[in-house]
Design goal:
With 291 residues, the protein is mostly helical. The chain is built from 13 helices and 8 strands. Helix 1 (3-22) runs antiparallel to helix 2 (44-52), helix 4 runs antiparallel to helix 5 (93-115) and helix 5 (93-115) packs antiparallel against helix 8 (149-159).
Length: 291
């Protein structure tokens, strides 16, 4: 058996065991005041899930959804419930932000894994103002409240209104922000979000400049009113601030914005099957999926 396949089997076994453990109820002591600044949630299992069941291709991470559907659905269900059951009110603001981003992103992967096998998510994802079924279906119960992915996004953006936050909200599509390579942590979430914003702005096909018009991914316009003060100039300034040299030069003369077509293709990686048996085959430059 190939080493990478052995690693994958080991990882999915660990994840399955973890999902079983999450079904067992445990009583946790209430946090004290001294816990507030140092308390953290352990996301090691989420890190392992991302590492072993996704592939990095051209700096963008895609999930092996077919394999997830066959081996990791118990983990996704158990871990989602486990995270939803965490008490977070005593955590620092940054730890709470990291928590909600991680819960949101996990649920996006779970929704795509369980609700569809389509690689075109246009109708299922929908738009910012008219989200589709993947986003509006209730996914978890948190503190007695039933929440959908769209509901969690609204909760996050109502509380943390900095534009960089939207780039930590994984959309599961190639036209959206990249999935962070690990779960977010409070200690680094702000710098990670700034990096995510810069990566997205400079990613191929996200911003194109024609004469004085910046054609931009609709994600910016979805949040223009609530995060950019309903101002095209604010959006443009954000783009110029985060653009790298080549794009920055093109944006220097831009005075208006309009939406580009959004790529709704799923961040999905389907490994090739070797003739001698089932084994994952990462493309050149790819990393992960049991490696």
């Amino acid at each position: 058996m190939k080493p990478h396949l052995m690693s994958l089997i080991f990882a999915t076994t660990i994840l399955s065991q973890a999902s079983m453990a999450y079904g067992q109820q445990t009583t946790q002591p209430s946090p004290t005041a001294s816990d507030y600044s140092s308390a953290q949630i352990n996301y090691a299992q989420f890190d392992l899930f991302i590492e072993k069941l996704s592939v990095e291709i051209k700096d963008r991470r895609s999930f092996a959804y077919d394999h997830i559907r066959k081996t990791a659905l118990p983990f996704l269900s158990g871990y989602s419930k486990k995270l939803a059951g965490e008490t977070v009110s005593h955590l620092s603001e940054d730890e709470q932000l990291a928590y909600w981003l991680n819960l949101h992103n996990l649920l996006v992967v779970a929704a795509i894994s369980t609700d569809t096998k389509s690689t075109d998510l246009k109708k299922l994802r929908g738009t910012g103002s008219v989200p589709g079924d993947l986003w509006t279906t209730p996914r978890i119960t948190k503190d007695g409240q039933s929440l959908s992915i769209a509901g969690i996004e609204s909760l996050i953006l109502a509380r943390w209104s900095e534009p960089e936050v939207i780039f930590g909200l994984y959309q599961g599509i190639k036209g959206g922000p990249r999935l962070h390579e690990t779960a977010y942590r409070g200690a680094s979430v702000r710098s990670d979000l700034r990096s995510a914003a810069r990566l997205y702005v400079n990613e191929k096909d996200i911003v194109k400049v024609k004469k004085q018009t910046a054609e931009i991914a609709p994600l910016f316009l979805w949040h223009k009113d609530n995060l950019f003060g309903a101002s095209e100039d604010t959006v443009l300034n954000f783009l110029k601030t985060n653009a790298e040299s080549k794009l920055a030069g093109k944006l220097s003369d831009a005075t208006q914005i309009e939406a580009r077509k959004l790529n709704y293709k799923a961040d999905d990686y389907t490994p090739r099957l070797a003739a001698s048996g089932v084994q994952s085959s990462s493309p050149a430059g790819g990393r992960g999926y049991g490696s």
